[in-house]
Amino acid sequence: MKLLHTSDLHLGKKIKNIPLLEDQEEALSSILSIAETNNIDAMILAGDIFDKGVPSVNALNLFQTFLENCKKSDMPVYIIAGNHDDASRISCYTQFFANSPIKFAKPFSSTPQYDDLKVGNEVVRIHFLPYITPAIVRQEYPEHSEEISSYSDAVNFALSQQPLLQNAPNILIAHQFIIDGQQLPEQSDSENIT
């Protein structure tokens, strides 16, 4: 089984007020070309689809066109929200692509999100973990609030709730920033740690 993984598209991003949409359109076209040329069985988009929680109309249109091209290829595509995305906005595409192999993670909830991908005789379980914070996980699991104080706690708890597929591979799609230790690492201006 061949999977293609990408993340951090940041559609709609501008550098010094110069839009990157033409470059991003070319990058998305290249992604589809790579998938086709290499007979990819499924694609994973692991968050930060957009550069902002409320993307521009041009960024939305670019993503819509990309999704329509993915749908034409009939290749399964798995998409989650990152820290730059609004998870509700990403999941709203579900209704428009309901009859296609494109799957969108919903905002994090106490209901585990996964899909069993079957290619020939192979099966793999794809688990969705959109960007989460300790507060989001505590809201969904109030009875475990005291156990969830750090990002690591939140991710570990969320993962413990995922039903693993036995005797087959399990793949986690996540967009998280986790460190152990006391020092915060360097970060760029575009990173949001909340």
TrEMBL record:
Entry keyword set: DNA recombination, DNA replication, Endonuclease, Exonuclease, Hydrolase, Nuclease
GO MF annotations, alphabetized: 3'-5' exonuclease activity; endonuclease activity
Matching CDD domains: MPP_Mre11_N
InterPro entries registered for this protein in UniProt: Calcineurin-like_PHP, DNA_Repair-Maintenance_Comp, Metallo-depent_PP-like, Mre11_N, SbcD
Domain of life the protein comes from: Bacteria
Keyword Transmembrane helix annotated: no
Gene Ontology biological process terms from the UniProt entry: DNA recombination; DNA replication
Domain (Calcineurin-like phosphoesterase) ranges: 1-128
One Pfam family hit: Metallophos
Signal peptide residues on this chain, from the entry's feature table: none
Quaternary structure and interacting proteins, as annotated: Heterodimer of SbcC and SbcD.
PANTHER family assigned: COMPONENT OF ATP-DEPENDENT DSDNA EXONUCLEASE, NUCLEASE SBCCD SUBUNIT D
Role played: SbcCD cleaves DNA hairpin structures. These structures can inhibit DNA replication and are intermediates in certain DNA recombination reactions. The complex acts as a 3'->5' double strand exonuclease that can open hairpins. It also has a 5' single-strand endonuclease activity.
Family classification: Belongs to the SbcD family.
Name of the protein described by the UniProt record: Nuclease SbcCD subunit D
Gene name of the encoded protein: sbcD
